[in-house]
Write a structure and sequence with these properties.
It contains six helices and no strands. With 115 residues, the chain is mainly alpha-helical.
């Protein structure tokens, strides 16, 4: 079984990838680029899967992180992909993902400090 630390690292790596994917893209460019949309959505599903696997005790220690919303987003993206709202995906990628990264970095620093 993987550790919480590794799932948190997965989240950070996925947020970094999303940032790279959209670094030179505005809303219109995102909405008109299937490759970028697909890549971002894939990384968001990775974030959701990793968040779902973070232990409940750790999630409870950091309730400011919207764990349930993250997992719920993943479930919609995977199971109801035909109804994905790309404006919401853009908002999530461009605004929510950087905030999530900051939260997860703090969790890692607090919970798994370097020796």
């Amino acid at each position: 079984m993987r550790s919480d630390r590794l799932y948190l690292v997965d989240i950070i790596e996925a947020t970094d990838a999303i940032t790279a994917f959209i670094s030179d893209v505005d809303t219109e460019g995102f909405l008109n680029n299937d490759l970028v949309r697909s890549a971002v959505l894939h990384k968001l599903t990775i974030i959701g899967e990793a968040a779902a696997r973070v232990s409940m005790p750790l999630r409870a220690r950091f309730p400011e992180t919207p764990w349930s919303d993250i997992v719920g987003f993943r479930n919609i993206a995977v199971h109801a992909y035909f109804s994905v709202d790309w404006q919401i995906v853009w908002q999530t990628a461009s605004s929510d993902t950087p905030q999530l990264r900051e939260q997860v970095v703090r969790i890692l620093q607090t919970t798994f400090p370097d020796p």
